[in-house]
Amino acid sequence: MARDHPLTRRDLTFGIVGLASKSPDAIQGALANESVDMGHRIRDHARFQTPAETRRVPLVIVGGGIAGLSAAWRLDKRGFRDFVLLEMESEVGGNARWGRNEITPYPWAAHYVPVLGKGPALVRELFEELGILKNGQWDEHYLCHSPQERIFIHGRWQEGLPPQTDHQQWERFEALTGELRQTGCFTIPMEQGWRKCGARERALDRMSMEEWLAANGLHSPEVRWYANYACRDDYGASSAATSAWAGLHYFASREPDDKGPIVQPQGNGWIVQRLEEKLRPHIHRGRMVYRIVKRGAGWQVFTEQTRFDAQAVIFAAPTFLGAWLIDPAPPKYPLEYSPWLTANLTLERWPEEQDTEPAWDNVIYDSKSLGYVVATHQSLKVHQRRTVWTWYHSFSEGSARDQRRLLLGGDWSYWKEFILRDLERAHPDIRACVSRVDIMRLGHAMPRPGPGAMFAAVPSSHAPSLFFANSDVSRLPLFEEAQYRGVAAAAAALRLLGRA
Ligand SMILES: Cc1cc2nc3c(=O)[nH]c(=O)nc-3n(C[C@H](O)[C@H](O)[C@H](O)COP(=O)(O)OP(=O)(O)OC[C@H]3O[C@@H](n4cnc5c(N)ncnc54)[C@H](O)[C@@H]3O)c2cc1C
User: Fold this and answer.
1) N or C: which end of the chain has fewer CB within 10 A?
2) Is the CB of 66 under 6 A from ligand 1?
3) Res 25: pLDDT
């Protein structure tokens, strides 16, 4: 089984010393979308410029990720247009943001939405509106072409994920997750089933995924590897640090024969783009909210340019920030956030290989990282010499705080080398193929649902006209949860404003 070892300070120091002696190579690149300094200004209670103007508006949305954009989408659909959406970055999208070079658009983080049986009603509503679901049929251009997945194991690529030679253990795993599926407790969005969980399912939140595997006699290295991979990939946490409820939700909320997933070159960025086109008049980019103060029944929302006086606020930025920004402060968000590192590699040519065709998702079994997705995968061009790969790494073990320090301690050269060494296991000639490595460091990328997290209290509103909408209210970092929380907050705000 591929075991995750947390990256230690020692690894980092030796890595950097090792790098210093290497001759510079021709690979270019940079750290992209760095917002660490902005975030730290809030943490360090830095002085902010007093806004020169004041604007009255009934409703302010803070944060333009999928949750904030979904809240705006719902308000607009309900005919309510008297609101602003404030996003601190120069682009909206949050974890679904995307980029583009001369070859292709590419994702920076979120890269797919699963197609779930009949699927969550809101997701279907949005996709019907965006024209990719018509009379129950999905537009083939959006469903991931095959081959979808492959894994590099025992020195060669194999199609599909995960390796399944231990049939008995896989059958047992599938039988157990199938039973859980039948309980109706594991749903997407999670809130619909979560309230119906009985004592047996709730008990799953008191143990880790790894403990659950052991308690159920699932000792196969393959099954344990896959469970660990799924936890690292979905939650940025190892199976030993993930609540068994959350780990099992991944399997028990999906049907084994689900189609999809929905993928595009820019990952979930295509949804951001389409929502942005609809909502442009409301969106204010480059507007960091640095303070939200309760005044009478309403709120003053401060940016350095404008103070917005609002009757209600939808807080769609990560919920932990509420304790730093909102006065009076809400209860502290109870979960840690995992750091992540992602990179976009520009390839001038494909690595040499013989075993299989490249897939959309490519995983290296014996790696601390999560592999890469190919941005040009959906392209119908047969001979596409140049491409872009989006590579992923979650810092899944040890305390999130220590791992964050390691993430921020490494500069572009350090992480570029880390990434290329990881890929060299499967692609020995990768350095000869790559011309750029652009890297994004995400300090607080997603909540880690550790044991106890799923039934810990996370408020959805505050004092009573501020509504939390980030996907972290669900404790599960998924597109569907972001959309559901955004829409639920919009509905609550409309009720408060008497516009339901
Ligand atoms: C590397 C990675 C890969 C992922 N892959 C997938 C995937 O393939 N599929 C999937 O379903 N999910 C994926 N996710 C989960 C992803 O987080 C959710 O799908 C979803 O995009 C989260 O949206 P959100 O709006 O809840 O939060 P966020 O995307 O975090 O949005 C919050 C927004 O608030 C803004 N903000 C923060 N502070 C302020 C402030 N003070 N003032 C103004 N604005 C502020 C931020 O800039 C950001 O735009 C991935 C996450 C990561 C990190």
Assistant:
1) C
2) yes
3) 63
**18 has pLDDT over 60:** no
500/146: higher pLDDT: 146
Q: Is 304 exposed, middle or buried (0-12, 13-18, 19+ CB in 10 A)?
A: middle
Top CATH class of 38-96+266-335+457-496 equals alpha beta
Q: From ligand 1's centre to the CA of 298, what distance in Å?
A: 27
- Give the CA radius of gyration of the chain: 22
* Residue 256 pLDDT greater than 90, yes or no: no
Q: Are 471 and 67 in contact (CB under 8 A)?
A: yes
Task: Find all residues with CB under 8 Å of 182, minimum gap 6, and list them.
Answer: none
Q: Whose CA is nearest to atom 48 of ligand 1?
A: 94
Beta carbon of 269 within 6 Å of any ligand 1 atom: no
- Within 36-150, where are the H helices? 36-43, 66-77, 121-129
Q: What is the CATH number of domain 9-30+337-447?
A: 3.90.660.20
Q: How far is CA 441 from the centre of its chain?
A: 13
Lookup: tokens for 198: 């009985």
What tokens appear for 336 in the block?
Answer: 């840690």
% the chain with pLDDT above 90:
83
Confidence of residue 10 (pLDDT cuts 50, 70, 90): very low
| pLDDT on residue 458 | 94
What lies within 8 Å, CB to CB, of 155 at 6+ separation is: none
At which residue do the structure tokens 């809130």 appear? 191
Is the minimum distance from the CB of 288 to ligand 1 under 6 angstroms?
Answer: yes
Q: Which helix (H) or strand (E) holds 445?
A: strand 434-447
List beta partners, residue 307.
54, 302
Ligand 1, residue 92: give the atom nearest the CA.
49
How many angstroms separate the alpha carbon of residue 348 from the centre of ligand 1?
A: 30
Burial class (CB in 10 A: 0-12, 13-18, 19+), 396: buried
Selection from 207, 217, 201 nearest residue 239 by Cα? 207
| Count of CA atoms in the C-beta half-sphere (13 A) of 219 | 1
What is the DSSP track for 360-412? SEEEETT-SS-EEEETTTT---S----EEEEEEEE--SS-HHHHHHHHHHS-H
